[in-house]
Specification:
This protein is an alpha+beta fold. The protein has one domain: Nucleotidyltransferase, domain 5, CATH 3.30.420.40. The protein contains 2 helices and 4 strands, in the order E-E-E-H-E-H. Strands 3-2-1-4 form a 4-stranded mixed sheet, with helices on one face. Strand 1 and strand 2 form a beta hairpin. Helix 1 crosses helix 2. The protein is elongated and about 35 Å long. It starts with 6 loop residues before the first strand and ends with a helix.
Length: about 80
Amino acid sequence: MEAMVETCCGIDVHQKSIVCCILTGPLDTNKPKAIQKSFKPTTNALKDALGWILENNVSHVFFESAGQYWIPLFNMSLILS
């Protein structure tokens, strides 16, 4: 059986920003709603991003990053979890 996720967030990590895109919608449709928002890579902005993700009831988060820009985001997730 295929796993289905109703609300997830993909994060693209850049040197000067992180871009979050939430996909949400009923599992019986192939047309999820996409909500996108950008944040700066500062501690306070990462906390804001986490708050925004939680407000939208995201159950799974995936992120992609080139180089080492993912490390602060990963460290923040460890601290806040």
